[in-house]
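Severity: low
Component: inverse-folding endpoint
Summary: output formatting inconsistent between runs
Steps to reproduce: submit the following structure tokens with default settings.
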């Protein structure tokens, strides 16, 4: 007697995920947002805030050079009004316009902060934190601006006011570059794992060294300018140590900004834009040294040369911020791999 065989059923065939599929799935898990109108709008606004902040630093330099720091004797208004028409002259205009630009930048950053907070699910998770830090810096900067006027241009306050502005330039430039780089890589249809390669371990410390060196030189320049040390040294031989320190600091700063450009030649081939970006500070820093030497040669008689020197310093800070933004996107994308591909393949 032959037993009846049990009815057979077609069983689903389990195909283990391929390595490419694993990378795609991992990349999808690393993409909490897709670039849309909101993303591009914030990137557009941040992109315009960078030159606005650089201009703000330049206007502040012009205000100092033209001795207009106390042209508006009160704060936050100017002669008790929003627009001091009767008292308006070049000095009053510089100080008034400096405050107006700062106010508009603050409103724009408040907008970025509010949008990134309330729409945080549609944006990178780090953006609200960066926007919050920028707003905190704006508040500190506003307080330092008030102390600058009320303290009758006390030298240390003026220097801190400049350095806080430069930190804000660095932060906004980095945030703009990071946001744009994220949108660029996601719009290309590639996962973060496919769009970038690991950066060398020494790249971030090198950027940190360059940034700290540049800020130290800016601090020396701000301390020298707020004390009018260059003029006093050239006229009466007083306060020459500030001028000497700033001149000596120019050469380490030159080396510190050229080094990332040379080191970028060793970056992965996928980071071609980062490599190109690294050469911009290296190309501009000799111009900055030349402007400094020209300023002294002219004995500070040409205000526009002095203002250009400060504007170029702010531009160098913005370029380093852009390097930080693009580098951090590459670094975080690689570091965010949840499970190594080899373990995924072994599991399959």
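Observed output (run 2 of 3):
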């Amino acid at each position: 007697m032959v037993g009846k065989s049990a009815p057979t059923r077609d069983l689903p065939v389990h195909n283990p995920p391929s390595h490419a599929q694993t990378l795609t799935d991992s990349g999808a898990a690393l993409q909490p947002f897709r670039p849309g109108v909101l993303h591009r709008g914030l990137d557009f606004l941040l992109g315009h805030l960078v030159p606005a902040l650089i201009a703000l630093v330049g206007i502040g330099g012009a205000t100092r050079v033209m001795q207009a720091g106390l042209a508006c004797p009160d704060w936050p208004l100017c002669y008790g009004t929003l627009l001091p028409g009767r008292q308006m002259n070049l000095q009053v205009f510089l100080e008034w316009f400096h405050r107006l630009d700062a106010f508009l930048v603050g409103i724009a950053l408040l907008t970025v902060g509010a949008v990134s907070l309330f729409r945080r699910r549609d944006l990178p998770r780090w953006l609200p934190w960066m926007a919050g830090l920028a707003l905190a810096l704006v508040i500190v900067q506003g307080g330092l601006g008030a102390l600058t006027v009320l303290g009758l241009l006390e030298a240390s306050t003026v220097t801190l006011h400049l350095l806080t502005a430069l930190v804000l330039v660095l932060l906004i430039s980095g945030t703009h570059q990071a946001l744009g780089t994220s949108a660029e890589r996601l719009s290309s249809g590639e996962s973060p794992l496919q769009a970038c390669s690991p950066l060398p371990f020494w790249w971030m410390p090198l950027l940190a060294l360059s940034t700290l060196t540049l800020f130290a030189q800016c601090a020396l320049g701000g301390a020298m300018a707020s004390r009018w040390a260059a003029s006093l040294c050239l006229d009466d031989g007083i306060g020459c140590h500030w001028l000497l320190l700033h001149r000596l600091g120019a050469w380490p700063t030159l080396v510190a900004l050229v080094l990332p450009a040379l080191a970028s030649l060793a970056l992965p081939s996928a980071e071609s834009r980062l490599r190109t970006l690294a050469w911009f500070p290296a190309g501009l820093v000799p111009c900055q040294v030349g402007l400094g030497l020209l300023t002294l040669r002219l004995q500070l008689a040409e205000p526009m040369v002095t203002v250009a020197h400060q504007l170029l310093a702010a531009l160098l800070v913005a370029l380093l911020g852009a390097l930080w933004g693009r580098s951090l996107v590459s670094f975080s994308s690689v570091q965010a791999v949840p499970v190594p591909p080899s373990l995924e393949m072994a599991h399959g």
